[in-house]
């Protein structure tokens, strides 16, 4: 039996209707921006394997570092013990974050990083004996798939079966120059009972790469600061260079209280989540009273292999060649976005740094439209490019090691498919 058939017999895939899923592709190895299937066909990973891969697949430097670590210390309980990779990673990461970020809490993925952040905020108020139970989030937000993370995410087909079990959240519009006054008045009216505001800065990824302006978000953050509402900046997607700067925070004039990281944190090599916070938050948990402890942890907290992968990935990220190539991607996307804007089958072209998104126009009915999206996905696969649409939104989130020629190849294929492949 081939891998696809064996897979079908035993595996249940994420976000996949297993009844209709047929083309599950077995990948046998990866190298740089390429993935290779069991028949030797190669694919450009233009979505960085769900936005995690920074420096390409099976990067030899990360592999070497993780392999060395694997022979030294693979795992140790992180309550009562520590190790060099965790200390070094916290030191290195904190040196790159806004200067108010002073402590690092480790977990396993983006969703858990969000859970930890929410618990920090809720218990911060609890430890102060304040009754603050409201949480603010953006409409269409996505913060993960565990229950807390789902609760602060926009309500959608993804959350529908669990609707009644999700805690209540106040959803607000993303800020614009026009609605800022209205948002400010509203936030002022509920601030006394609001514990925190959680948001994806600059770009709402899973909602379909919806973008808002850094100036407007900074203004909104000013309001929260003034109203003493804690800010959780979810940089699970935007962190580590995606927005053209190291962090979305580098575009903003205000500093969050808490930040969440995952996805690109280890260069896409190992699962890991990080929640960083300010001393103001941390100090509120310092007490002789045991009940003020943050009672949260995971078996694999600060796993040494994941920490090492993150250390190696951050070293690669800060190399001049990587930063120059990020700039190159940003510039080339910007030129290509002008071409897309003039295309009759495309609308709402938008870009934040290395992330380029556009929407497909079709005159047909919704069902026909869904078929088009499926067909586009397949057609790009045939052409050796992984471009996985989110509804009618297509996007590019390439690994930073992509070359100018490889980008041109992708752009060319996109235009060809749009021109000729459907009406
Ligand atoms: C992907 C994502 C998450 C969830 O991360 P997982 O590792 O998939 O749990 C949270 N927040 C944002 C902004 C994300 O893009």
From TrEMBL:
Listed GO MF terms: 2 iron, 2 sulfur cluster binding; adenosylmethionine-8-amino-7-oxononanoate transaminase activity; dethiobiotin synthase activity; pyridoxal phosphate binding
Amino-acid positions noted as binding pyridoxal 5'-phosphate in the UniProt annotation, renumbered to this chain: 110-111, 234, 298-299
UniProt keyword DNA repair present: no
UniProt entry keywords in alphabetical sequence: Aminotransferase, Biotin biosynthesis, Cytoplasm, Pyridoxal phosphate, S-adenosyl-L-methionine, Transferase
Reaction(s) catalysed by this chain's protein: (8S)-8-amino-7-oxononanoate + S-adenosyl-L-methionine = S-adenosyl-4-methylsulfanyl-2-oxobutanoate + (7R,8S)-7,8-diammoniononanoate
The UniProt record lists the keyword S-adenosyl-L-methionine: yes
GO biological process: biotin biosynthetic process
Residues reported to bind substrate: 50, 142, 263, 297, 388
Class of the enzyme per the UniProt entry, highest EC level: transferase
N6-(pyridoxal phosphate)lysine modified-residue sites: 263
EC number, as in UniProt: 2.6.1.62
Pathway annotation from the record: Cofactor biosynthesis; biotin biosynthesis; 7,8-diaminononanoate from 8-amino-7-oxononanoate (SAM route): step 1/1
Principal subcellular localization: cytoplasm
InterPro entries in UniProt: Aminotrans_3, Aminotrans_3_PPA_site, BioA, PyrdxlP-dep_Trfase, PyrdxlP-dep_Trfase_major, PyrdxlP-dep_Trfase_small
GO cellular component: cytoplasm
Named cofactor requirement(s): pyridoxal 5'-phosphate
Annotated compartments: Cytoplasm
Marked site positions, Participates in the substrate recognition with KAPA and in a stacking interaction with the adenine ring of SAM: 15
Pfam assignment, any one: Aminotran_3
Record-linked PANTHER family: ADENOSYLMETHIONINE-8-AMINO-7-OXONONANOATE AMINOTRANSFERASE
Subunit annotation: Homodimer.
Function: Catalyzes the transfer of the alpha-amino group from S-adenosyl-L-methionine (SAM) to 7-keto-8-aminopelargonic acid (KAPA) to form 7,8-diaminopelargonic acid (DAPA). It is the only aminotransferase known to utilize SAM as an amino donor.
Family affiliation: Belongs to the class-III pyridoxal-phosphate-dependent aminotransferase family. BioA subfamily.
Name of the molecule in the record: Adenosylmethionine-8-amino-7-oxononanoate aminotransferase
Organism for this UniProt entry: Chryseobacterium taeanense
Lineage summary: Bacteria, Pseudomonadati, Bacteroidota, Flavobacteriia, Flavobacteriales
């Amino acid at each position: 039996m081939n891998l696809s058939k064996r897979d079908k017999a035993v595996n249940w895939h994420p976000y996949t209707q297993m009844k209709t899923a047929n083309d599950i592709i077995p990948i046998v190895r990866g190298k740089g921006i390429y993935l290779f299937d069991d028949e030797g066909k190669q694919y450009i990973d233009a979505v960085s394997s769900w936005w995690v891969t920074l420096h390409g697949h099976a990067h030899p430097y990360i592999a070497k570092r993780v392999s060395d670590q694997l022979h030294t210390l693979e795992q140790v309980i992180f309550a009562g013990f520590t190790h060099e990779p965790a200390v070094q990673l916290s030191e290195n990461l904190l040196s790159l974050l806004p200067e108010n970020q002073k402590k690092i809490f480790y977990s396993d993925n983006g969703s858990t990083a969000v859970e930890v952040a929410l618990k920090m905020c809720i218990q911060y108020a609890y430890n102060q004996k304040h009754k603050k139970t409201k949480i603010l989030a953006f409409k269409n937000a996505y913060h993960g798939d565990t229950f807390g993370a789902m609760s602060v995410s926009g309500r959608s087909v993804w959350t529908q079966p669990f609707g009644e079990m999700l805690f209540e959240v106040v959803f607000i519009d993303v800020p614009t120059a026009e609605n800022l006054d209205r948002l400010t008045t509203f936030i002022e009216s509920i601030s006394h009972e609001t514990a925190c505001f959680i948001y994806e800065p600059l770009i709402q990824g899973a909602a379909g790469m919806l973008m808002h302006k850094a100036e407007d978000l900074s203004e909104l953050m000013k309001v929260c600061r003034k109203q003493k509402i804690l800010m959780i900046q979810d940089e699970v997607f935007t962190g580590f260079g995606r927005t053209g700067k190291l962090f979305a925070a580098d575009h903003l004039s205000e500093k969050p209280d808490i930040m969440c990281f995952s996805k690109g944190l280890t260069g896409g090599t190992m699962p890991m989540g990080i929640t960083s916070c300010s001393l103001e938050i941390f100090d509120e948990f310092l007490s002789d009273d045991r009940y003020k402890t943050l009672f949260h942890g995971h078996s694999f907290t600060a796993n040494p292999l994941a920490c090492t992968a993150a250390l190696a990935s951050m070293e690669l990220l800060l190399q001049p060649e990587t930063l120059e190539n990020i700039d190159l991607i940003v510039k080339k996307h910007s030129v290509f976005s002008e071409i897309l804007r003039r295309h009759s089958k495309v609308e709402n072209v938008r870009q934040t740094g290395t992330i380029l998104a556009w929407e497909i126009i079709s005159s047909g009915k919704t069902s026909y439209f869904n078929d088009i999206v499926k067909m586009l996905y397949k057609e790009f696969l045939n052409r050796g490019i992984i471009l996985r649409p989110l509804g009618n939104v297509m996007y590019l989130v390439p690994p930073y090691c992509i070359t100018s020629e490889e980008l041109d190849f992708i752009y060319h294929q996109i235009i060809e498919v749009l021109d000729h492949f459907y009406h």
